[in-house]
């Protein structure tokens, strides 16, 4: 007999909050945490925690990492993708400032039996200056990221997997369908 068990989702905001746009993920996590969320969705400011975050993955079946990404695209454009592996291969281009730490975290979690489905929501940074504020482009992107995440939370993540394939295919949020009731 099958039971209807809800997946536990962790939305992890990564980045250094003192380095301007590098703190994008933390800013998104803070904004999202101020909204009403279902009990099976947790928000966490991961900062640059690396392996310290391992214990927070227990019981998590879906992990959404919010971060910046090094892409030749305009700052503030949002992209959604699934990482294509859990290790860095020789010659592989690292596309996120936290990718190595996050991938190592996911790899270690898998070794101990914790294998959440992983998504990355990211944007290219505009500036990496010492500041606790986001640039105007990334501040707007943080609002858009919160709206996007609230949409996929609202449809119980049904739309999340419909338009995401493995890296290196990266989908612009503007080009993918949103949850119910979005324009």
Automatic annotation (TrEMBL):
Pfam families in alphabetical order: HycI
Coiled coil regions, renumbered to chain: none
InterPro entries to which the protein is assigned, alphabetical: Pept_HybD-like_dom_sf, Peptidase_A31
Keywords in alphabetical order: Aspartyl protease, Hydrolase, Protease
SUPFAM superfamilies linked to this entry: HybD-like
Entry EC number(s): 3.4.23.-
Protein family per UniProt: Belongs to the peptidase A31 family.
Name this protein carries in UniProt: Hydrogenase maturation protease
Gene: hyaD
């Amino acid at each position: 007999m099958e039971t209807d068990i809800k997946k536990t989702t962790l939305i992890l905001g990564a980045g250094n909050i003192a380095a301007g746009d590098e703190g994008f993920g933390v800013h998104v996590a803070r904004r999202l945490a101020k909204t009403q969320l279902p009990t099976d969705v947790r928000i966490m400011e991961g900062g640059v925690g690396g392996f310290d975050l391992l214990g927070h993955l227990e019981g998590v079946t879906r992990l959404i990492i919010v971060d910046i990404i090094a892409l030749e695209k305009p700052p503030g454009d949002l992209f959604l993708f699934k990482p294509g592996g859990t290790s860095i291969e020789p010659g592989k281009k690292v596309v996120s400032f936290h990718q190595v730490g996050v991938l190592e975290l996911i790899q270690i979690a898998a070794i101990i039996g914790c294998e959440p489905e992983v998504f990355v929501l990211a944007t290219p940074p505009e500036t990496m200056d010492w500041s606790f504020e986001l640039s105007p482009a990334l501040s707007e992107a943080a609002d858009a990221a919160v709206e996007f995440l609230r949409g996929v939370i609202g449809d119980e993540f049904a739309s999340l997997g419909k338009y995401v394939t493995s890296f290196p295919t990266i989908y612009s949020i503007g080009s993918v369908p949103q949850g119910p009731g979005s324009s």
